[in-house]
Amino acid sequence: MEPVLDDKKTTHSATISRQFNGVVVSDKSDKTIVVKVESVKKHPKYHKRYVVSKKYKVHDETNKYHIGDKVKFVECRPLSKDKRWRIIA
């Protein structure tokens, strides 16, 4: 009897992590920056476009980024109570 080969091998699937671009609005904390991300939304009834902004606390290991810098960051494991994001180098 021949061994049965399972075509469905368990492989580590790459998780899709969220990425955002934004502008640094605060760099006062050590190894943490606050990044503001703006997105354009459309009203469901009136179809008017409007800007919505949200702030994220992002981990900056080297304190390299300062107010006004444009950064790209990605989701990661929780680093503190509020930080779940890190800079993409």
Give the arrangement of secondary structure elements.
Blueprint: E1 19-26, E2 32-42, E3 49-59, E4 70-75, E5 85-87
Parallel strand pairs: 3-5
Antiparallel strand pairs: 1-2, 1-4, 2-3, 4-5
GO molecular function, one term: structural constituent of ribosome
Protein name: Small ribosomal subunit protein uS17
Function: One of the primary rRNA binding proteins, it binds specifically to the 5'-end of 16S ribosomal RNA.
Characterise this structure.
This protein has 89 residues and is mainly beta. It has a single domain (19-87), classed as OB fold (Dihydrolipoamide Acetyltransferase, E2P). It contains no helices and 5 strands. Strand 1 and strand 2 (32-42) form a beta hairpin.
Number of strands: 5
Oligomer: single chain
CATH topological fold name: OB fold (Dihydrolipoamide Acetyltransferase, E2P)
- Percent in helix: under 10%
Task: List unreliable stretches of 5+ residues.
Answer: none
Largest sheet composition: 5 strands, mixed, barrel
Highest-level CATH class:
Mainly Beta
The CATH homologous superfamily is called Nucleic acid-binding proteins
Please identify, by name, the CATH architecture: Beta Barrel
How much β-strand is present in the residues? Answer: 35-45%
Task: Give the domain tally.
Answer: 1
Series of H and E elements: EEEEE
How would you write the strand order of the largest sheet?
1-2-3-5-4
Number of helices: 0
GO biological process, one term: translation
Protein name: Small ribosomal subunit protein uS17
Function: One of the primary rRNA binding proteins, it binds specifically to the 5'-end of 16S ribosomal RNA.
Organism: Candidatus Falkowbacteria bacterium CG10_big_fil_rev_8_21_14_0_10_37_18
